[in-house]
Amino acid sequence: MAVPSQKSPDVRISSPAGRWILFTTVLGSSMVLLDSTVVNVALPRIGRDLDTDLAALQWTVNAYMLTLAALILLGGSLGDAYGRRKIFVIGVVWFAAASLLCGLAPGTGVLIAARALQGVGGALLTPGSLALIQASFHPDDRARAVGLWSGFGGIGAAVGPFLGGWLVDGPGWRWVFLLNVPLALLCAPVAVRHVPESSAGGPHGRFDVAGAALGAVALALVTYALIEAPGGSPAVAVAGIAGVAAGVVFWRVEKRRPDPMLPPDIFASRQFTAVNLVTLCVYAAFGGFFFLTALQLQVVAGYSPLRAGTALLPTTVLMLLFSARSGALADRIGPRAPLTVGPLLCAAAMLLMLRVGKDAHYLTDVLPALLVMGAGMVTLVAPLTATVLASVDASHAGLASGVNNAAARAAGLIAVAALPLLAGMGPEAYRSADAFDAAFRRAMPICAGVLVVGAGLAFATVRRPSRACRRPEGRTHGSVTCPPLEVGRGR
Fold it and tell me: Where is the region Disordered (predicted)?
């Protein structure tokens, strides 16, 4: 039985209670945003210290994205039913415990398992952080509160690569994970003391645990098949076939359940389906790009982790500064042009990255590509979210955003698994500058091609939504791993 909401939302931003709620939710969501951006910078050092191959580094990234993508919709439903603060605090504590296990991991097996547990914690706290704001603040202050939450969270994402590089160069890569522990020790007690509890109220049906489990199994098996394919084992083919079969069973289960995690009828909107296909293309390319670029800068160009992390700052800084203006422009001209031009700019940036090789100069080789990449991301991210929300009924806005967010994370997961295979990157490639550089030069055109496909889909299928549609409340966005998450209006 759900815990009923105690009172209608009436907290004002200027009040001490409002400041505590913002502080807590920003701190909690920043843990997840930081972890999404800092780990790539640490991968070469993790590989050397644990003496592991490229496949283990892929799993270090993908184990986290796997559980986060598969469970984020379920995490939001749990908060609505049992109390958003309660599930948020459980997520923070869970995330911190898993981070501690990551930091203490004696080998890659424990590290990968702990990363998967981190994703579970992230799936509990990520939707809860925004839902708490929506459910707590007075309607007149809600949009501003969401904007502040999004902006401060974007700052956290922007400093992530720099912070990760500094930690790897200083106390060591384990502190990339251990940093979450003191943050959680601050966040959880403040949430319990200062954040009001809220829920959707009323009775709830059974949760779609079967759907969540099937989705996770399908993603895990397909990911395993792609990462382990170079070995040529018969188990790889079996895993791939089983993963596809699990995906088919997942879809059938969702169609038959009275309360599915992913209602198939939401895809009755052609625009919603089209924009999610564009999302898959765009965030698959982004996932592969940021995974390989962090390695290219260190393995081939000879950058230190700190210098590599700092080099990646322009993309998130540009998004943080200009996403709101991009969203306003898309409101005036419609989403078709931004969702077509943005991916093409990003594709051009990935081709510009072919200039980054041994002894690459930052100002002439690296920075131009990242500035074009940032411009492309600024152009498309806010309009993409607005179009997703505009393509369904306002009562389904939270679900639509959650589906789009999960699709982006799943696309990045598959890209990190598949791109090294498609580029012919061997298990030891990251130990050899020449081998990695050759594979990187094959991978970037692949990413650019996927973006061109996404631009073509947007041009052919995306249309201007009704002016009466719901617009995203948080426009200031700095994450490069997924679209901004929105929830339904506070209840």
Answer: 469-491
